[in-house]
Amino acid sequence: MSQEQPVDLQILNKVRHLIPESFKIERQKKWEVLKRKGLVQKILLKSSNRFKLEQTAKYDEFCDALDQATYGNNMDVIKQFEFFKESIKPKIKAGFQFGTINGVESLDLNTFETKKGNFKTKQGSTDLIVFWSSENEKSTRTLNELNTWLSQNQNLKLQINPIAVSLDDDSNNFKNHLKTNQLTQFQHYRYSLGWDSSNAFQRAMELNYLPKIAVVGKENQVIEVTRKAREVENIIKTYWEAGSESEDEGKYRELLDQQTFRFIKKALTQQISDLLSQNKSFAKSDFIRLSLTKCYKIAQDGSKEIVERSHLKVSYEVSVQSSQTIKLFLNNVTAVLGKDNVQVKRSIVKDPKGMLDMITSGFQDVLKKNYKVIQEYTIRSEYFNYVHEKEEFQPDVQVISKKSIQNLTFKEYQTIYSQVLPIFKKYQQEIDDSDDDSDNDEEQEEDKRLIFDRVNELTDCLKSGLELSLGQPFQTIQNYHPFGKDQVVDIEHKDDQVLIVMYWDDNQQCNRQFTQILKVLLVNEEKYKDKIRFVALSKHKQETYELFFLKNQGIEEVIEFYFPREENQADQVQYNVKSFPHFIVVDKVGSIRIQSQVEDLESILTSYIEESIESLNQKGPLNDDEYSEITQFLYSDARKKLSQLNNKRQFSLSFIFKEIDQGEKVVRFAPIIQYTIREGKQKYLDTFLSLLNKVVPLSNFQINQTVQRTLNLLFPGKACKLCQNELNDQTQQYYSPFSDEFYCVKCSEIVDTKAAGYKKFRVQDNLIFFNAPLVDKSVLNDIDVYRLGNNQKVKRGEQYTQNHALDCNGCDGDVKGFRYIALNCLPGKLTDLALVDFCQDCFDQIRTGGPRLEKIVKRTKIYGYNPSMLLLRIPFYMGYYDY
Predict the structure, then answer these.
(1) How does residue 810 score in pLDDT terms, banded at 50, 70 and 90?
(2) Among 338, 346, 712, 717, which residue carries the largest CB count within 10 Å?
(3) Which CA distances in Å does 113 have to 190, 195, 443?
(4) Banded model confidence at residue 700, pLDDT cuts 50, 70, 90
(5) DSSP secondary-structure letter at 698?
(6) pLDDT of residue 113
(7) If DSSP codes are grouped into helix, strand and coil, which group holds residue 613?
(8) Which helix (H) or strand (E) holds 612?
(9) Cα 58 to chain center, whole Å?
């Protein structure tokens, strides 16, 4: 009775007819021992031939048939055939014809104009082709290295045709990178669609992993494809010296006798694997792999022919500290197997700890050269946070030990940073560009973590000497130029004026903030005149934001925009800018009051305008007696006055005491009262604060307040603005809070399906729906202003969609068509997901009292929803809070 074929060969037989007969297919059994995984047995199918680029359609047909054949099998079989697909797919590698690159545009570095077309390698020349993207740091670094290498080897460049092909999907990013970086040694192209998974050439070059460098010979045949810039010179020179194209030669195959192979296999699986897995002397970042291979060639009829029985192969990459351990381990292995049966294929001894010492030593040498020393200091922050559940203040102490270079100026920081940056980059790059073996990823990450942590530690040390904290004086920001002008100006604080600096970039959060800020500045133009100055400092240079200002025409007339001369300027370090938007709010006497994101700018500005210079000048550090009096007060019965503010989404209160211990002196800052409160609830807090004022005057505190602004709505309307039909408290109706007009249901819900964008709708505002008759009239009051949004419209050039990227809270389905936001649910603090949304179907159930209404109410009960609640209708999706 014949033995049943293994599952993988059964599947292979089903699809074999879709593979060209000339392809050699092999079934490989591999026994591997990895230090961190132990013994693993693999069965691999692989092809020694690949489909050609022009056979991509046939390859796709084969993959579809294979997916059907493997469906329902276990994951090991599926993974086995995923590997097989990789081994047989079209791939541009050594020995292949390079072909033509279609769908690209060329760039003129003089005019920065582009021209669509294609690209072909030059017959008779050696082409160096680099695939890169401005958004991929490793690829930009590779391109810079090769550009420098070519500029320093002009004689070599005369014999090479250097081409750079960008995968940027944004033409502006591509152009801006080339404007900023002088990459003049290359001819530049860009794929018009960026990375395109349907592009056969891109898939064959595996351009989803950048960088990729192809060296193409004089007969348009690929010499080598690599990801490492340092290998390019050797590849080219080896090719020139050989005088011919390299071929994809088959590797030497070992064919040990069966008895010897079985002996090695038995020793590996029963003895040697334990020697490695139980060895505790190796470091966590050490990589060791032992492998043994047996391979058969599978003929068209399914018959097998043995082509390989290997010796035990060893690969390792260990630290200097483990060099004796690996030597001892290999001695033990050869003692078991005999020296002739063990082959060391790769042996690398690395020194990550030595790198750490070199980085630290280099950093200290730079400091010594600039007459600076590192000093240790401690930041002690004590918080007393009001806890609603307990109706008491809960202490929390944070102590952070830091190192810094004290009294560092802007110029000194820039000088030192420019000198240490090459040191940091050298070792980061050395680790980043080390071995690409995928089995080694985890160990490499451990080495990278060590190096990157040390670099971050020393960078933080340098930054700490420059960083300003709350309560410290604002320092002039330099090296920025205004919108539309080249002259650099200083951003300074003026006495008796509140200064707001917003660090921004072109992203959703900043764009939403700008919409709100414009409204606040325009509404309060007279009130803020000469009292408030608002400045927006961009992350990048002005040319990066051409599209932003095209979409937001006129915004520069309301807001002062400034742009940096250089990327990553020192002021971003000084003011601890780590994300965008980031606000710096400076009071009338020049003290930094806020360094963070801001929820409600208007309430902050209103309170800061009202502060007098006299009261601000009185603020200062507490003495020990005052500190004791405040803490005793916080634990006293006075806290019971806050019991009516029992909603933590609508009220928070913290007292903050901060000091910096520099050893010889301790610097204390004025105590901070920080609170958020709902409009109309201030009286309850004022009672508590008035009692505190009798203990320690409030003028001694820095008070940071955020007021959650609310509004009440009038209902019903008298008549529809468009058709003049009568409205009353029994009729369902819509209302625009932006035009203060009511509309009947019929006029509000007319949609012209032939029109595009907002032209579809007769009423183009975001509208509030009143589900009359209102059973619960309290829904008309205490509505968060921020929930109404800003009546945003899709701007020119932006895509719009009625497929909203969120789930309906009423049914968990997709929100398509109109989005309806419940205005009365979860009132209070703006959080990541504080909105309750309904889809069109659930909205129809709510307003008609449909059969699913009871289920919808039950599902949303946790949010406090009832069918009387007001619903804001949004036509197009621009973001969760962007409407």
Answers:
(1) very high
(2) 717
(3) 12, 21, 46
(4) confident
(5) G
(6) 87
(7) helix
(8) none
(9) 38
Identify the three-state secondary structure at position 334: helix
User: Which residue's structure tokens are 């819900």?
Assistant: 749
Render pLDDT for 87-146 as a digit per residue (tens, 0 to 9): 898 888 888 888 788 889 988 888 888 888 888 787 778 899 999 999 888 899 899 989
- 211 cis-preceded (ω within 30 degrees of 0): yes
Sign, CA torsion 301/304/307/313? positive
Tokens 């006798």 label which residue?
257
Task: Report yes or no: 29 and 295 within 8 Å, Cβ to Cβ.
Answer: yes
What is the pLDDT, as a whole number, of residue 358?
93
DSSP string for residues in 765-808: S-EEEE-SS-S-GGGGSSEEGGGGTT---PPTT----SEEEEE-
What distance in Å separates the CA atoms of residue 658 and residue 669, rounded to the nearest whole number? Answer: 6
The per-residue pLDDT for range 290-329, each reduced to its tens digit, is: 999 999 998 877 778 899 999 999 999 898 999 999 999 9
3-state secondary structure of 210: coil
pTM score of the predicted model: 0.65
pLDDT at 648: 83
Place of tokens 């325009």: 522
Provide the pLDDT for residue 250: 44
Three-state DSSP state, 824: coil
Element housing 554 (H / E): none
CA distances (Å), origin 464, targets 39, 212, 573: 48, 38, 8
338 and 407 in contact (C-beta within 8 Å)? no
Residue 833 has a pLDDT of 67
What the block records as the tokens of 474 is 């604002």
- By the 8 A CB rule, do 23 and 47 touch? yes
**Token pair in block for residue 174:** 């591509």
What pLDDT score was predicted for residue 797?
Answer: 59
Give CA–CA dist 564/557, Å, rounded: 19
Question: String of b and e for 573-608 (b: at least 16 CB within 10 Å)?
Answer: bbbbbeebbbbbbbbbbbbbbbbeebebbbbbbbeb
- Cα(first)–Cα(last) distance of the chain, in Å? 73
Torsion angles phi and psi, residue 405, rounded to 5 = -105, 110
pLDDT at 419: 93
Residues 6+ apart with CB under 8 A from 755: none
Cα radius of gyration rounded to whole Å, the chain? 35
How far apart (Å, rounded) are the C-alpha atoms in residues 506 and 545? Answer: 7
Reading phi first (left if > 0) and then psi (alpha if -120 to 50, else beta), residue 62 is in alpha
**Could you tell me if 424 and 459 are in contact, meaning their C-beta atoms sit under 8 angstroms apart?**
yes
Please give the Cα distance from 654 to 121 (Å, whole number). 67
Interatomic CA distance for residues 810 and 838, integer angstroms: 6
391 contacts 435 by C-beta, under 8 angstroms: no
Q: Are 201 and 101 in contact (CB under 8 A)?
A: yes
The rounded mean pLDDT for the chain is 88
- Residue-wise pLDDT for 786-795, tens only, equals 899 888 887 6
**Rounded CA gap, 131 and 119, in Å?**
13
| C-alpha dist (Å) from residue 325 to 35, 141, 316, 382, 445 | 13, 36, 12, 49, 22
Q: Is the pLDDT of residue 207 over 60?
A: yes
